[in-house]
C-alpha cells in the first residue's frame, strides 16, 4: 500500500477528483474542480454518480455502471501522472470496488478520502449496504476527512457532541485504519470551529495537531467538506506536509464561507465562494460609469449653488466673479504640475502624450485668464483655503506613487467642469443669450467641444488604469476621485464664502 501521502515538488499538481456531480455547482466534482484550481492545481474529474440537487436538497441519484467508472479511471492513468487523488461520493459498493482496484494498481502519491455518506440536506449519498465496503477502503487513503456524523458511523459509535470526545474518536479511527484523520468541527456548537489532524505516533509532529478557527455566521456551508478535502489534496501534492496543508486550506475556506453571500446562489444552503481571493477586473467602462453615478450628488449640489445661479442669471456680484477667476488661475498652475506628473507616470505613450498636452493647455488657459480677464480687475486675492485644499489633495495624489490614483484625482476637474459647463451654457442659450449679460463672454467659453473631447479621453485613461489596478488600488482611485468631486463643489461655493 502507498504510505507516503506526499507528492512534494510538483509545480502544478495534477489532481483527480473521483466524486459525484452536483449540477448546482456547490458540492461534488464541481466544488472539487473549483477548489483544486483555487489552489493552483490542474483538476481532473472521474464521475462516480449523477445527482439531481440544488441548495435545498437532493431529488434523485443515478449511479452509472461501475465498469464505466473503471474505464474513466484507466483512461486518465494510462496517459496522465496523477499527483493527488481526492475521493468523495461513491454511491454503492460496486463503485467502491472499482475505485479500490484502481488505487491498488496505480498507487497515487496522495490519496484524500472524504467519506461522503449523507448530504447536509439529510439525503443519503451512499447506500447503507455499502458502508462496510467504504470502511475497508479507508486504509488505502493517506488522509480521511469525516465530519462528526461520518466519524461516528465509520466506527459504529455514537456521534460525539464535544470536541475532546471527537478527537478521541479520531484517534480510534486513525488506529483502526493506519491513516491520518482530519477531525472537522463544522458541526460543533459554539463560536469556535476547530479542525484537527490525528495520526498514529510518528505520522505527524504530534499525535493531535489542532488548527483553531472562528465560526463564520452563514448557512452557506454546502460543499465545505468537498472543497476542504480537494484543497488538502492539492496543497499536499506541493507541500508534502499535512499540517502545512491544513494551515493553508482552513483560512482559505473561512474566507470562502465569509464571501459566500456575494454569490447569491439558491435559497437553501448556498455554496462557498472558492475564488474569493481572486480579484476580477471590472468590465471596460464599468469603473468610470460607477464614478459618474457616485458624482451625481455633487453635480446636483453644484447646480444648486448661489454662485452658479448668479453666474447664469447675471446677478453674481462682480467681486465674487473676480475672486473665482483669480482662484481658477492659481488652481490651474498647480493642476498643470500634477498633470505633468501624470504624464511622467503614465504606462502608455498615448497617456503620456495626453497628460503632457493637458498640462500645457492648462498653462495656456491660465495665462489667457491673466491677459483677458484678470488684467482689467484691480482685486488680487491670494491663495484661498479651498484652492489650497484642492491643490494639496492633488499633490498628495501625485506623491502616492500610483498613476491610477493620480489620474482618478485629476478627473473631476475635467468631468464635473465639462458637465457643469455644458449645463450652464445650455441654460444661458435657453435664456436667449441676453446681449447685456455681464458674464456672457465667460459663459460662451463653456461650449468648448475640444474640452469635451479631452474629457472623454481622460475618462478612458482612468478606466484603463482601473482595469490594470488591483482591488486596493481601485478603492484608493475611487476615494481620490470622490474627494476631488467634493472639492469641485467647494471650489464653486468658495467665492460666496471667501471673496
Ligand atoms: N460556519 C463555519 N465557519 C467556519 N468554518 C466552517 C463552518 N462550517 C464548516 N466549516 C469548516 O468547513 C470544513 C468542513 O467541515 P464540516 O464539519 O462541515 O464537514 P462536512 O459536513 O463534511 O462538510 P459539508 O458541509 O460539505 O458536508 C471544516 O474545515 C470546518 O471547520
Ligand atoms: C455529489 C455530492 N457530493 C458530496 C456532497 C456532500 O456535500 P454537502 O454535505 O455539503 O451537501 C453532495 N451534496 N453532493
Note down, in words, how this protein is organized.
The chain has 499 residues and is α/β, with parallel strands linked by helices. The chain has 2 domains: 14-263, UDP-N-acetylmuramoyl-L-alanine:D-glutamate ligase (3-Layer(aba) Sandwich); 286-498, Heme oxygenase-like (Heme Oxygenase, Chain A, Up-down Bundle), CATH 1.20.910.10. Helix content is 55%, strand content 10%. The chain contains 17 helices and 9 strands. The chain has helices spanning 28-38, 66-77, 93-106, 131-137, 148-155, 163-177, 224-239, 242-258, 286-303, 306-313, 318-345, 349-374, 385-399, 403-430, 440-444, 449-468, 471-498; strands at residues 14-21, 42-54, 57-62, 84-87, 111-113, 143-144, 180-184, 195-198, 208-211. It has a 9-stranded mixed sheet with strand order 3-2-1-4-5-6-7-8-9, sandwiched between helices. Strand 2 and strand 3 (57-62) form a beta hairpin. Helix 11 packs parallel to helix 13. It is elongated, with a radius of gyration of 33 Å. It starts with 13 loop residues before the first strand and ends with a helix. The structure holds adenosine-5'-triphosphate and (4-amino-2-methylpyrimidin-5-yl)methyl dihydrogen phosphate (MP5). Residues 120, 147, 184-187, 193, 195, 213, 215-216, 221, 223-226, 228, 250, 253-254, 257 line the site of adenosine-5'-triphosphate. One of its GO terms (cellular component) is cytosol. This is Hydroxymethylpyrimidine kinase. InterPro entries: Haem_Oase-like_multi-hlx (IPR016084), HMP/HMP-P_kinase_dom (IPR004399), PM/HMP-P_kinase-1 (IPR013749), Ribokinase-like (IPR029056), Thiaminase-2/PQQC (IPR004305). GO terms for molecular function: ATP binding; hydroxymethylpyrimidine kinase activity; phosphomethylpyrimidine kinase activity. It comes from Pseudarthrobacter enclensis.
Amino acid at each position: 500500500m502507498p504510505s507516503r501521502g506526499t507528492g512534494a515538488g510538483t509545480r502544478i499538481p495534477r489532481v483527480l477528483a473521483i466524486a459525484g456531480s452536483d449540477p448546482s455547482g456547490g458540492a461534488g466534482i464541481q466544488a472539487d474542480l473549483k477548489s483544486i484550481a483555487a489552489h493552483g492545481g490542474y483538476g481532473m474529474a472521474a464521475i462516480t454518480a449523477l445527482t439531481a440537487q440544488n441548495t435545498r436538497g437532493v431529488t434523485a441519484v443515478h449511479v452509472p455502471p461501475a465498469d464505466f467508472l473503471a474505464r474513466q479511471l484507466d483512461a486518465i492513468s494510462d496517459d496522465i501522472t496523477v499527483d493527488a487523488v481526492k475521493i468523495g461520493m461513491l454511491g454503492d459498493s460496486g463503485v467502491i470496488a472499482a475505485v479500490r482496484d484502481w488505487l491498488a494498481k496505480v498507487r497515487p502519491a496522495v490519496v484524500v478520502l472524504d467519506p461522503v455518506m449523507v448530504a447536509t440536506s439529510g439525503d443519503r449519498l451512499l447506500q447503507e449496504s455499502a458502508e462496510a465496503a467504504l470502511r475497508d477502503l479507508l486504509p488505502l487513503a493517506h488522509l480521511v476527512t469525516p465530519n462528526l456524523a461520518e466519524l461516528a458511523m465509520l466506527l459504529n459509535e455514537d456521534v460525539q457532541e464535544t470536541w475532546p470526545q471527537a478527537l478521541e474518536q479520531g484517534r480510534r479511527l486513525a488506529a483502526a485504519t493506519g491513516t491520518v484523520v482530519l477531525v472537522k468541527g463544522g458541526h460543533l456548537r459554539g463560536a469556535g470551529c476547530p479542525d484537527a489532524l490525528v495520526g498514529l505516533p510518528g505520522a505527524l509532529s504530534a499525535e493531535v495537531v489542532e488548527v483553531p478557527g472562528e465560526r463564520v455566521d452563514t448557512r452557506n456551508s454546502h460543499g465545505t467538506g468537498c472543497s476542504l478535502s480537494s484543497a488538502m489534496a492539492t496543497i499536499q501534492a506541493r507541500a508534502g506536509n499535512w499540517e502545512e496543508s491544513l494551515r493553508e486550506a482552513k483560512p482559505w475556506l473561512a474566507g470562502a464561507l465569509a464571501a459566500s453571500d456575494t454569490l447569491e446562489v439558491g435559497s437553501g444552503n448556498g455554496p462557498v465562494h472558492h475564488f474569493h481571493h481572486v480579484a476580477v477586473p471590472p468590465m471596460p467602462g464599468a469603473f468610470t460609469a460607477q464614478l459618474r453615478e457616485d458624482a451625481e450628488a455633487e453635480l446636483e449640489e453644484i447646480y444648486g449653488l448661489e454662485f452658479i445661479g448668479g453666474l447664469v442669471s447675471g446677478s453674481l456680484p462682480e467681486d465674487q466673479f473676480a475672486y473665482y477667476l483669480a482662484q481658477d488661475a492659481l488652481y490651474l498652475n498647480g493642476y498643470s504640475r500634477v498633470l505633468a506628473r501624470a504624464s511622467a507616470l503614465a504606462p502608455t505613450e498615448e497617456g503620456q502624450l495626453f497628460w503632457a498636452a493637458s498640462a500645457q493647455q492648462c498653462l495656456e488657459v491660465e495665462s489667457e485668464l491673466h491677459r483677458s480677464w484678470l488684467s482689467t480687475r484691480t482685486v488680487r486675492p491670494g491663495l484661498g483655503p479651498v484652492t489650497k485644499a484642492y491643490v494639496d489633495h492633488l499633490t498628495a495624489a501625485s506623491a502616492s506613487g500610483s498613476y491610477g490614483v493620480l489620474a482618478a484625482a485629476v478627473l473631476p476637474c475635467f468631468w464635473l467642469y465639462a458637465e457643469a459647463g455644458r449645463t450652464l451654457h445650455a441654460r444661458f442659450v435657453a435664456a436667449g443669450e441676453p446681449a447685456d449679460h455681464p458674464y456672457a463672454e465667460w459663459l460662451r467659453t463653456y461650449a468648448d467641444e475640444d474640452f469635451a473631447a479631452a474629457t472623454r479621453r481622460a475618462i478612458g485613461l482612468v478606466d484603463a488604469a482601473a482595469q490594470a489596478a488591483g482591488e486596493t488600488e481601485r478603492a484608493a482611485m475611487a476615494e481620490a476621485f470622490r474627494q476631488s468631486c467634493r472639492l469641485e463643489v467647494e471650489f464653486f461655493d468658495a467665492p460666496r464664502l471667501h471673496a
